[in-house]
Amino acid sequence: MKFRANLMIGGGLVALATIVAVLAPWIALYDPVLDANLMNAEIPPGSEFIFGTDGQGRDIYSRIVHGAQISLTVGIVSQIANTIIGVTLGLTAGYWGGWWDDFVGLVTNLMLAIPSLIFALAIMAILGPGLSSLLIALGLTNWSYSCRIARAQVLSLKSQGYVQAARILGYGDLRIMFTQLLPNMLGPIIVIATLGMGAAILAEASLSFLGLGIRPPFPSWGSMLSEARDQITTAPWLSVFPGLAIFLTVLGLNLLGDGLRDILDPQSRERRA
């Protein structure tokens, strides 16, 4: 079935990227920063340098392998932060309602109206480039979808019998939210988090490409694309391989999220069928 194919292909690509990131110090052939030799500058892919070298004579393959660590770290950490913020706001807003629901809805609509990358650009302009600044910027700007999903789930679940029973037993609001409601809405949240990781990796690449993310000489796929833009006709391998790494990783996360959605939400699979 289609959802199984999405799950297998997406899971395989994500697993490959994860293995590469974890084993980067052992499978990289050269140091991605220190092993620079101008005598080897811009050598095309071959037996010695399988992905070629850049303008500083650094091995492209080794830089892409180490760049996987940065991309996956940004994707995972920033999406964890976004999920915690979004789920907490959506859970409390949907359960308590009233002025808090109105306030959260207003802020969420504001975040949805303006692209998250614009917010991230503003934060990076204030904090400056770097990995920690990047994690803060991306971890605070893409929580609105998780918030919307969490609120909608709470509105549909809080009238269920087990929630009413928990109230009768004397459970407090927070205990009901985090022990009764949250476990029953994990499916959609996991799907949104998986898709959000792909968006975070694309955002990191975009910010690094603009010079506001990971700064050279550290290997980031986005900064590698930025360095290669002037040699796209004379040395195309400089941009092809980092772009391919971004494409395959984000594709894998999107397919994985799509497959998880079909497994965790049978109604979605039936509608698409």
UniProtKB/TrEMBL annotation:
GO terms for biological process: transmembrane transport. Keywords: Cell membrane, Membrane, Transmembrane, Transmembrane helix, Transport. The keyword Signal does not apply. The chain crosses the membrane at residues 7-29, 117-141, 185-214, 234-256. GO terms for cellular component: plasma membrane. InterPro entries: BP-dependent_transpt_permease, MetI-like, MetI-like_sf. Signal peptide: none annotated. It is a multi-pass membrane protein. It is found in: Cell membrane. Residues 68-257 form the ABC transmembrane type-1 domain. It holds the Pfam family BPD_transp_1. The keyword Cell membrane applies. Belongs to the binding-protein-dependent transport system permease family. This is Peptide/nickel transport system permease protein. It comes from Stella humosa.
